[in-house]
Amino acid sequence: MSRTRFLVSAAAGLVALAFSGTAFAAYTPSLLVAGTNHALGGSGPVVIGLGQNENDDATAVATIYSPPGYKVALTQPAGTTLGSLSGVFKVAALGGARVNIEGTVKTDNPANYVSNPCSPGVHEAVWVLEFTLSGTVTRVPMYVDRVTTAPENAFASARMRICFPSPYIPPPQGANSGAALIVAAFAIRGVFTNPGARGPYPWNGVFVPYTPGTGTVNAANSAQSTSFVRLPMRLTMTAKRQRIRGSKRRDRLRDGGRSGDPRPHREFPRCRDCHGGQ
Predict the structure, then answer these.
(1) Which of 79, 36, 68, 263 lies closest to 154 in space, CA to CA?
(2) Distance between CA atoms of residues 94 and 231, nearest Å
(3) Contact 157, 69 (CB under 8 A)
(4) 0.85 cut: is pTM over it?
(5) CA nearest to 52, candidates 237, 180, 241, 231
């Protein structure tokens, strides 16, 4: 398993764990974002996770904003694979059973989506989440644009909007098998470059549910979630050992470098499978 795919699966698991066995209000979705490169000005896949309690109202629209300071490249040709996808759906046709899905995120031609009902108009990029659910290939488009004008440019560098079909009504307007999203995590590669200044960077998600039992969006019950990415980030650990041959010693363990202590240095073990790119 590649490092990025591992992070996608881990993010999906973390979001799912956060909601398991907990009673919430009618709608409390959450956003989780993690970078794979934490250097200032660095670039690498970004993992984005969405989640909610399985008893929440189903999500209709999710809009994700990357923070100001991130450079955003949306010039990939149609058919480019940006990353992998992992998730969990609650499927009404299976008695509300949870179904795990795996898939990909690929670019498509924005000209094919000008008349979409979710976010009509011309977009800089369209990313398609593609996976198989209950034997049916499912393609969910995400509409992506850089943010350059007010008021959104005060808090965002890019906007990513995705609409899910309603699980409360049958296809074609509704979701196949009455499937409702519980958790999804996906990786985006070759798009985002980290800011050059240190600090915490807030990624924001705005979520709008359906009115239960309908295909009508319930804007009055919208919710927001924020996930902070701190840059730069380096893992350092200090371990204290007592009474070694009558004296105390302290070893500093640091990922990716020595502490400068002339005594023996311990490095973190290297995971061969965790360092292969996707």
Answers:
(1) 68
(2) 43
(3) yes
(4) no
(5) 180
